[in-house]
Write a structure and sequence with these properties.
single chain; 227 residues; alpha+beta; six-stranded mixed beta sheet; 9 strands; rod-shaped
Length: 227
C-alpha cells in the first residue's frame, strides 16, 4: 500500500478525532499513526486541546450550583443591608436620646414665669394660669394641686418648671427660627390653691414624704395672701 503523506493525515486528524470519517479513512489514519511517531504526537496534542461539550445533566448541575451561589450572595447582601440599616437607626436613636433626654432646668429668672387669674365667661370662678417664655424651652412640667403640711400649716400648692435640652438649644435653631413665644399652663381653681412655686421635683410623692425639702429650694411666684 502506498504510504500516505503526513500532511494529508494531519489535515484529516481533526475529523478523525471527532469520529466523523468513514471506516476506510479511519483505518487508513490508524495504520499511519502506528508507523509515524510524528503524527501520533500531533494526534495526542490535538486530543488534549479538544474540550468535549458538557452533558445536559452536567449543565443542570452547574446551573444549580451557580444559582445556589447567587442565592447565598443575595442573602448575604440582604443581611448586610439590614444590619447596616439597624446600626444607622441605633446610632441615630442614641444621638437623639443623648440630645433630647437629658434635661436642664431653666432658671426662674430666664423662664419668664408669672401667674395670673382668669375668669371664665359665664362663670364667677377664677382659674390660675402660668405664662412662660418657651423660646428656649423644650417643655414644662407641672403637677396637680397637692395639699401638704408645712411649718406654716396645711397648704395646697402647685410647683412647676421649664426645661431645655441640647436638642432644643443647639439643633432646633438650625431648622427653624424661634420667635419669642408664651405658653399658658393651667394650674387649677384659684379658690383651691394657696401658693405656686417654680422649682424642680422628682415626683409628686416628694411632697408627701418631705414637702419642706422641695419647697425650700423652690421660688415662690404666687400666693393667695398677696391677692
Amino acid at each position: 500500500m502506498k504510504k500516505i503523506n503526513c500532511n494529508i493525515i494531519r489535515d484529516i486528524l481533526p475529523l478523525y478525532l471527532d469520529d466523523v470519517v468513514s471506516d476506510e479513512t479511519k483505518q487508513m489514519v490508524e495504520e499511519h499513526l502506528q508507523s509515524c511517531a510524528s503524527c501520533r504526537a500531533e494526534a495526542s496534542a490535538m486530543k488534549k486541546d479538544v474540550i468535549l461539550p458538557a452533558s445536559k445533566t452536567q449543565r443542570l448541575a452547574e446551573a444549580k450550583v451557580i444559582k445556589g451561589i447567587r442565592t447565598k450572595i443575595f442573602r448575604k447582601k440582604v443581611i448586610v443591608s439590614a444590619v447596616t440599616v439597624a446600626a444607622v437607626l441605633a446610632v441615630a436613636a442614641g444621638v437623639y436620646a443623648l440630645l433630647a433626654l437629658p434635661r436642664s432646668v431653666i432658671p426662674y429668672e430666664e423662664s419668664g414665669a408669672s401667674v395670673s387669674s382668669v375668669s371664665l365667661e359665664g362663670s364667677e370662678d377664677e382659674y390660675l394660669y402660668c405664662s412662660m417664655d418657651t423660646s428656649k424651652a423644650a417643655g414644662s412640667v407641672c403637677h396637680e394641686p397637692v395639699t401638704v403640711q408645712t411649718e406654716a400649716g396645711e397648704k395646697t400648692v402647685v410647683i412647676l418648671y421649664e426645661y431645655s435640652t441640647m436638642w432644643s438649644r443647639h439643633v432646633e435653631p438650625l431648622f427653624e427660627t424661634k420667635n419669642e413665644a408664651v405658653t399658658l399652663e393651667p394650674l387649677g381653681s384659684a379658690d383651691e390653691i394657696d401658693e405656686v412655686y417654680y422649682g424642680t421635683f422628682e415626683s409628686v410623692s416628694d411632697f408627701y414624704e418631705d414637702p419642706s425639702s422641695v419647697l425650700d429650694h423652690a421660688e415662690l411666684i404666687w400666693s393667695a395672701q398677696d391677692e
